[in-house]
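#struct-pred
JK: can someone run the complex with iron/sulfur cluster? inputs below
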Amino acid sequence: MTDIPITPEVTALPRMPRRADGKVNLIGLTRPRLQEALIAAGTPEKQAKMRADQLWQWIYQRGESDFAAMTNLAKAYRASLAENFVIERPEVVSKLVSADGTRKYLVRISGGHEVEVVYIPEEDRGTLCISSQVGCTLTCSFCHTGTQKLVRNLTAGEIVGQIMIARDDLDEWPKPGEGSDARPRLLSNIVLMGMGEPLYNFENVRDAMKIAMDPEGISLSRRRITLSTSGVVPEIARTAQEIGCQLAVSFHATTDEVRDKLVPINRKWPIATLLDALRAYPKASNSERITFEYVMLKGVNDSDADARRLVQLIRGIPAKINLIPFNEWPGAPHERSDWERIESFADIIYKAGYASPIRTPRGEDIMAACGQLKSATERARKSRAEIAAEAGI
Ligand code: SAH
Ligand code: SF4
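RT: done, structure tokens with the ligand placed:
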């Protein structure tokens, strides 16, 4: 291996986010962009692919963040990489562990903003719930995040960085000599169900998920990644084509009248339009079933008639229905449906031939359950009218 001179100033990287000191963070760059970055910093073009592959493995298969430890690269090359680049995760500000083992990380990203990331261990899997935006432009009435206006989209590096932080904390990077699946994965599944609407941050979410799915990257099967959307119809076909992960949809109501109130994006793309897009999804993405998320709100959307309408609406779509008992948060305008109501609703769906698991709330004691996430620094509550006016809906 030859020592490669690298110009100290990486001037040819116009589109890459840089730190104040001019260094570019390699986490979150797609393979082609990583190569581009290396070339711009002086790596000969002929070597760029091989160097990118080597770095990729260190970063995403070993969790390494120190160039000096990358022993299959020449010493001078490592030094020059360190002059131009960093491998930097978002900072973990705090970690809370629930009585049920759920872990909630408060993560600080550049600009001082914070997002929450939740790890949920189960018997046969461990699911990481990650965020795609700080806040959300949408204002679903039952969602705590929806009371926080959108601060900004997360970068691909900040999205994939959440997975890396959790793997650090779980100490599950393969040890030297170990294959990526030598031990059962503690973090085996990803759900994009944290803060934000992933389809309003499409490119960054796509790039991050590509890294998560890359067999030489974090190497999680696309069948173990679920993206949840409130129903951004124009981006659903693109999700099938460009990501190909599993899809969940925040359905939550069986008439436009009620859904308009609960999930205001319904006014733009009503139920019939949404269902058309969902019908096309499984075939286009080669995925199995669509998950219909349905939050159980007392007296609002939880009647037997709703359950019957729901199964009629989704007829013909390979689906499973995930009933989510409403998780309360301070000032929430709804109550959780009674347990008997939820069971009766589930029974109608089950008898119509659909799996209808009731999602057990996890991590409630640390406010880590669905829809409870909101960054502590951004708690100043806006009125719903104010948020809706800003979002243009
Ligand atoms: N913006 C995306 C993903 C984040 S929300 C979406 O809306 O799908 C993840 C899931 O949690 C969604 O189904 C959402 O409707 C649900 N949720 C939000 N607030 C909730 C609450 N307070 N109780 C239960 N589920 C909630
Ligand atoms: Fe945004 Fe999803 Fe919450 Fe609606 S449910 S406000 S889309 S995060």
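RT: quick notes.
The first strand starts at residue 24 and ends at 25.
Residues 192 and 227 are 5 Å apart (CA to CA).
JK: thanks, will look after standup
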